[in-house]
Amino acid sequence: MEVAVGVLLALSVCCAGAWLHMDRDRAFYPTMLIVVASYYILFAVIDGRIELLLAESAIAVAFMGVAVAGFKRSMWFVVGALAAHGVLDFLHDYFLRNAGIPRGWPAFCLAFDITAAMFLAVALWARRCVRPLTRHQRGSTTPPHELLRELASLIGEMRR
Q1: pLDDT digits (tens, 9 = 90+) for 91-113
Q2: Which of 16, 78, 79, 152 is deepest in the core (most CB within 10 A)?
Q3: 152 vs 2, 29, 148, CA distance in Å?
């Protein structure tokens, strides 16, 4: 259930961002990455150990740095960092034991992060490769139903 909810929530957030044109602003996905990365700081506070808080804060700051690089340089950094964060979520317990993490969180966050990364990758690909933008068109968005169609097509190609 955690995976299904993570996928559906990520699709809901990303589709809403595209439909409402919130993703026109380059800050939309980097901000999402910053928020996603900051949850482990909260979980460390719940755990109560200062050394864990420092370790989780260092990891979050690294992801925040990549979010800034993505905002300033290339949104592909954000795609990679969202995907990497999803993998980190799934393997987190091998690196740091954090009793504040809810039981279903790793699977939920893996699904959310990977789905959001894929959605952003499809959006970037669709905007640049399928129909290159003129200076006037920059800032316009691909409708969510087209992004979902592209995502389904890419997933189908990956399965072959």
Answers
A1: 988 989 998 999 999 999 999 99
A2: 78
A3: 21, 21, 6
